[in-house]
Predict the 3D structure of the following.
Amino acid sequence: MNPDSDMTNLFIALTFLHIACQKFPTKRQMVIMQAVVFFKEYQRLRGNIQETSYNIGRAMHHLGLYHLAIHFYEEALKTAPSIEGDETFDLRREAAFNLSLIYRSSGNEDLANHILMTHIVV
């Protein structure tokens, strides 16, 4: 296992994320901090691209850290996909949908609808 691999760091971060979400983890905040450290290392190694912003945003969303998830989802919306011209690798729709879920759950229907109409309507 190569510690300087972006995927190794992503998988370790996801492992800590899942441990933090278990019913009775001891020192949950410490486990979350370890996950964040590995996510940031993943971002450093992989680059500040749409994929990394979306993945970190999704992890923060999963943890219920909505203010951080919003930040990373908005970064993903602003960033072009890694492979231009192929919509398969464009994560803007997924980021917009998840962002709208956060806004809708907080009671901001207007902003949720605006995000959907701006980024998802075909």
User: Anything to note?
Assistant: The chain has a mean pLDDT of 92. The radius of gyration is 15 Å.
